[in-house]
Specification:
With 154 residues, the protein is an all-alpha fold. The protein has 9 helices and no strands.
Length: 154
């Protein structure tokens, strides 16, 4: 990974990072493997952080067919109805972890405060609207992860 990251010049890096992220996201299935493909990228340098964020973002775009931007992704995440019995918390967990890596691994906090604020609202929604007594698979994992992230993000 370090060889790939260090191969490009500063001028080539921005477009190359996006191309690498698209390549990786297109080759990984939309299950726990897409989380592993993101989290195996070390956050040792700013380029690695940028690549980690870009891979997570590309995975999210492929998970949400109607999304064309980061705001669309967060809007679709916030539109999920947790009270619906058919709510898939496993997918929600994957989306939450990918969104965490996308938002928190990059400089989006400074560059795009709207995305960061929507992410915080999404975390608040996940941690407060999922009941602690909800016994569906992954419901407690989504709730606890969102509460944990909300504690450190706000």
């Amino acid at each position: 990974m370090q060889a790939i990251v260090n191969y490009f010049t500063d001028q080539e890096w921005h477009s190359s990072c996006e191309n690498i992220a698209k390549f990786v996201a297109s080759r990984v299935s939309k299950d726990l493997n897409c989380i592993q493909s993101v989290e195996c990228i070390p956050v040792a340098s700013s380029r690695c952080k940028q690549l980690r964020s870009a891979v997570a973002y590309q995975n999210l775009l492929s998970c949400f067919d109607g999304a064309n931007s980061g705001e669309d992704i967060l809007r679709l995440l916030m539109a999920i109805n947790f009270k619906d019995k058919s709510c898939n918390f496993f997918k929600m967990y994957i989306h939450l972890v990918l969104t965490e890596n996308w938002v928190l691994s990059n400089s989006l906090i400074e560059d795009n405060p709207v995305i960061y604020k929507k992410f915080c609202l999404c975390l608040r929604q996940c941690s407060s609207l999922i009941s602690p007594t909800d016994l569906r698979p992954f419901a407690s994992k989504v709730r606890h992860r969102a509460a944990y992230l909300m504690h450190f993000s706000i």
